[in-house]
Amino acid sequence: MRPDLLARLAARQQAQAGAGLLRRLRTVEDAATPWxxxxxxRLLGFAGNDYLGLAAHPALRGALQDAARRWGVGxxxxxxxxxxxxxxxxxxxxxxxxxxxxxxxxxATGYMANVGVLDALLARGDLCVQDKLxxxxxxxxxxxxxxxxxxxxHADADAAARQLALRPGAAALLASDGVFSMDGDVAPLxxxxxxxxxxxxxxxxxxxxxxxxxxxxxAGSTAAVGLDARAVPVLVGTLGxxxxxxxxxxxxxxxxxxxxxxxxxxxxxxTAPPPxxxxxxxxxxxxxxxxxxxxxxxxxxxxxxxLRAGAAALGLRLLPSDTPIQPLLLGDACTALAWSRALExxxxxxxxxxxxxxxxxxxxxxxxxxxxxxPEQIGRLLEALAVLHxxxxxxxxxxxxxx
Length: 403
Ligand SMILES: *Cc1c(COP(=O)(O)O)cnc(C)c1O
Description:
Elements: H1 5-18, E1 28-32, E2 35-38, E3 41-45, H2 58-71, H3 86-99, E4 103-107, H4 110-121, E5 127-131, H5 136-145, E6 148-152, H6 157-166, E7 172-177, H7 189-199, E8 202-206, H8 221-224, E9 234-238, E10 248-252, H9 254-263, H10 265-268, H11 275-289, H12 291-314, E11 325-331, H13 333-345, E12 348-349, E13 352-353, E14 363-368, H14 375-391
Parallel strand pairs: 3-12, 5-6, 5-7, 7-8, 8-9
Antiparallel strand pairs: 1-2, 2-3, 4-10, 9-10, 11-14, 13-14
Pyridoxal-5'-phosphate is lined by residues 109-111, 114, 135, 137, 177, 181, 206, 208-209, 238, 240, 248.
């Protein structure tokens, strides 16, 4: 008998619930960075990717409102069919200049940018070599285009080299996150660039969490280690994190961008993002590049140092990371969930990240810092973590149990 798809899906969900891995959709009833109101309670948020605190910045709000007055809300069509408006063009130019590339192409989301660029570059039978912890959209992009996907152990450029060497004759893309979204560490970018160069593979770096945060003038993780457009010919950036808005882009040579505009189906067959959002993003880019951006990054670095020093003093196991993503490894999913719930009771929103988002046995709290956090607020989070750590029995030295 033919299996029922809806019943199968429901059974899958049941199994997920049984394993304690069901995700809960929470509605944020109000937000005033870094605060959120959830379930009628005001919580100090350490969950978002608004690393510079730009999402609610008056300059962005103003730009959005002005542009909405002029352009309305929707772009009304795909870029190639009349949806490409002046704010999109201005934003693409600014993003290219900021990242030191000839040109840039907008996508509605980072997920679509990755799927789009892999789909345009790779064909069935090509080789796509990726870090095991790359973002899901890079993995999905490789699956969709039918390339042979090989994933190397996290941050292991030598393993990547061995995978590329297995098929020296195949057209190959080497793809990595710049900053890993659930770990906060930076990829071995120089080693990957050198590997791509000597093995004639094309290097793609997805800098969703590095852009605006790392490098001179916030130009990102690749700029921070001096890699230019020749070393990283395909650069993906997203706009919904440090820039505080929505959308994504691919930056590279004029030839690459021109071809992506033809062949990246996620760009061709999708409505252009609202022009007013592009205008707000342009304001965000100007801010992030400028002196205010420098000041925000300095503040963010201070917050990161404060959290790490405080956690170390408490004996808490933060993963090694110099970025605003500061994961506290707890081990099993139930423990991570218990800590997250206890923190919520104490007035903090710090989500538990569980499999399959992270590998089995590596459930964690993902503490995300922002320039919008005051030192006193980070201090209060540390105090709450200290209470949980003490309850969990730090004396055993084992992975803390549920409080
Ligand atoms: C968030 C993220 C994306 C997806 O970007 P969206 O604009 O949210 O779709 C892609 N890559 C990485 C590394 C990310 O962290």
